[in-house]
Design brief:
- It is a single chain.
- The protein has a single domain (2-212), classed as Rossmann fold, CATH 3.40.50.
- It has 214 residues and is α/β, with parallel strands linked by helices.
- It is globular.
- A 6-stranded mixed beta sheet has the order 6-7-8-3-9-10, sandwiched between helices.
- The chain has helices at 41-48, 71-81, 97-108, 114-119, 135-148, 165-182, 193-198, and strands at residues 2-12, 16-26, 30-34, 56-61, 64-65, 82-85, 153-157, 185-189, 201-206, 209-212.
- It contains 7 helices and 10 strands.
- It is 35% helix and 28% strand.
- The longest helix has 18 residues, at 165-182.
- The structure holds adenosine-5'-triphosphate and magnesium ion (MG).
- Magnesium ion binds at residues 41-42, 157.
Length: 214
């Protein structure tokens, strides 16, 4: 099943970032986007994940033209189908790590996966307030929170940026199993070449265009 279809995307901030980018993803697929710092990867991810309307082009998620939806439809799509793991973690700061997972669990009517919490090495910190956690622990909680929602597509912007090698590899394996088991999709932005090449497809953003390199 087609999960994402982006057509002829172009975007300019102070200067043109990219033009005429097209990309499609099916269920069960993992895709990585690589490229130099400042080239526009996060911007592209924001556009593909409904957070930023491009200057030109269209994005369909689950066969819905996302920038043509009204705000109620868009909120519903984001809540039910999209998993966003970005550099800022969007955790509820006044809550404990576990309460953050409970919120996701209640909203999605899905149970908290305690095995996942253990695999992410979070057992010892799960009762602590988010503000007391390290950057990498917060990152792992946000990964657990997003997976608890059971999204159809995960957009992850350097999700292992704050993590050591062993934990990063575990996160990659968790993503891969999730995508396979749930017939979901993963779009990963990373500077880690090894993790990029674990994905089914790899694209490089360079010279304002997106080129498939695997
Ligand atoms: N909201 C914004 N307004 C103006 N310029 C922006 C905005 N967001 C990003 N930019 C600019 O767009 C360019 C691309 O930024 P982006 O964050 O997409 O790069 P990136 O490829 O994700 O880099 P990194 O690997 O360092 O995360 C940068 O020059 C940045 O300053
Ligand atoms: Mg970025």
């Amino acid at each position: 099943m087609k999960i994402l279809e982006a057509t002829s995307l172009s975007h300019t901030f102070e200067y043109p970032l990219f033009s005429d980018i097209s990309l499609s993803m099916n269920s069960g697929e993992t895709v990585a986007i690589i490229g130099e710092s400042g080239i526009g990867k996060s911007t592209l991810l924001h556009i593909l994940s409904s957070l930023l309307q491009p200057n030109e082009g269209a994005v369909e998620l689950l066969e819905k033209d996302i920038y043509a939806l009204n705000s109620r439809e868009l909120v519903k799509l984001r809540r039910d189908e999209l998993g966003l793991i970005f550099q800022s973690h969007y955790l509820f700061k006044g809550f404990s790590a576990h309460e953050n997972l409970e919120v996701a669990s209640i909203l999605a009517s899905e149970p908290i996966d305690e095995t996942l919490v253990s695999r992410l090495g979070l057992d010892d910190v799960i009762k602590m307030k988010v503000t007391q956690l390290s950057g990498g622990q917060q990152q792992r909680i946000s990964i657990a929170r997003v997976l608890t929602k059971k999204p159809r597509i995960i957009f992850a912007d350097e999700p292992t940026g704050n993590l050591d090698n062993k934990t990063s590899l575990e996160v990659m394996k968790i993503f891969e199993e999730y995508v396979q088991d749930e017939e979901a999709a993963l779009l990963l932005v990373t500077h880690n070449e090894e993790f990029a090449h674990r994905c089914h497809k790899v694209y490089k953003l360079e010279n304002r265009v997106l080129t498939q390199v695997k």
